Amino acid sequence: MRSSSSSAAAEIEHYARALRAPRIGDAFRRLGDQARTAGWSYEEYLAAVLSREVSEREASGAALRIKAARFPGHKTLEDFDAQPSADRTLIAHLGTSTFVDEAKNVVLLGPPGTGKTHLAVALGVQAANHGHRVLFDTATGWVARLQEAHSRGKLAGELTKLRRYSVLIVDEVGYIPFDQDAANLFFQLVASRYEHASLILTSNLTFGRWGEVFGDQTVAAAMIDRIVHHADVLSLKGASYRMKGHQPTADTA
Fold first, then answer.
1. 133 and 24 together in one domain
2. 150 CB-side CA count, 13 A
3. Is 171 helix (H, G, I), strand (E, B) or coil?
4. Helix (H) or strand (E) segment spanning residue 213
5. How far apart are the first and last CA of the chain?
6. Which positions fall inside the AAA+ ATPase domain (predicted)?
7. DSSP class of residue 204?
8. How many independent structural domains does the chain possess?
9. 142: phi then psi, degrees, rounded to nearest 5
10. Which residues, 6+ apart, have CB-to-CB distance to 120 below 8 Å?
């Protein structure tokens, strides 16, 4: 009996390597002991072994997607407490990443320090955990990338490549104004993803002031129209969380 068990174990290890499923090789003995003690059926045991492989493979894939996204740091929705008055119901819904499946956008507006980037990254992390490819950069970073592709005559190919990402995060729209060429490139990025894939954008400016950023009210209006047609827009208000504990005190002298 022992010889038969050892032979079966060796076969399982071989099959696990052949299938490139190392967690099966690690887990089948431990789960086998648990199955015998609890009286599991063969089907229940097999389901438990395969579930362990799938869950750990998904966790590993999520970690790789998060690393590839180039986030400026790891943020979570649970840690988002910069604005207690924020719409928690909507934020929780966005955390399900349903908006990605629907190719909708998310726009986060508000003054500096109100948690826009934190929330954008946290939603990106959630999307990566749900199996989506995500890529992060600032607005100026995206424009620089498109300018470089344009200079090589490969702008169309770059936009096609970026469309393979389910989510692009565009941080800090409005902090630095664009010249006309940069504004046109940014418009092409937005237009290429319209109703195809999601954008998460953060900006310190209301939509009414985006014309100042892009140097042309018409271009700004056309861009905003495509962004908000299928979008959730959150306005974050309040003082900068970075200034907490650094408020000037009254002179009592």
1. no
2. 13
3. strand
4. helix 210-214
5. 90
6. 102-234
7. S
8. 2
9. -65, -40
10. 106, 108, 136, 169, 171, 200, 201, 202
- Among 45-49, 115-119, 138-142, the range scoring the smallest mean pLDDT is 45-49
Q: Which residues have CB under 8 Å from 124's CB, separation 6+?
A: 69, 71, 134, 136, 167, 169, 200
Q: Name the DSSP class of 249.
A: P
Residue keyed to tokens 């190719």:
103
Judgement on whether residues 163 and 94 belong to the same structural domain of the protein: yes
Q: Supply the CATH number for residue 154's domain.
A: 3.40.50.300
Give the tokens for residue 219. 């271009």
CB 174: neighbour CB atoms within 10 A? 19
Query: Which SS3 state, helix, strand or coil, does residue 20 take?
Result: coil
Strand 231-235 versus strand 105-109 pairing type: parallel
Could you tell me if residue 247 is inside a domain? no
Residues 50 and 14 in one domain: yes
- Which amino acid would we find at residue 172? E
How many helices (DSSP H) and strands (DSSP E) are in the chain?
11, 5
Same domain membership, residue 101 and residue 208: yes
Instruction: Classify residue 252: in a domain, yes or no.
Output: no
What's the rounded Cα separation, in Å, for the pair 93 and 90?
A: 5
User: What are the tens digits of pLDDT across the range 130-177?
Assistant: 999 999 999 999 999 999 999 999 999 999 999 999 999 999 999 999
Given CA atoms 197, 203, 207, 211 in this order, what sign does their dihedral have?
A: negative
Q: In the β-sheet with 167-173, what is the strand arrangement from edge to edge? A: 134-138, 167-173, 198-203, 105-109, 231-235
Q: Residue 105: phi, psi to the nearest 5? A: -105, 165
Two tokens, residue 140:
């100026």
pTM of the predicted protein model? 0.78
| pLDDT tens digit sequence for 63-72 | 999 999 999 9
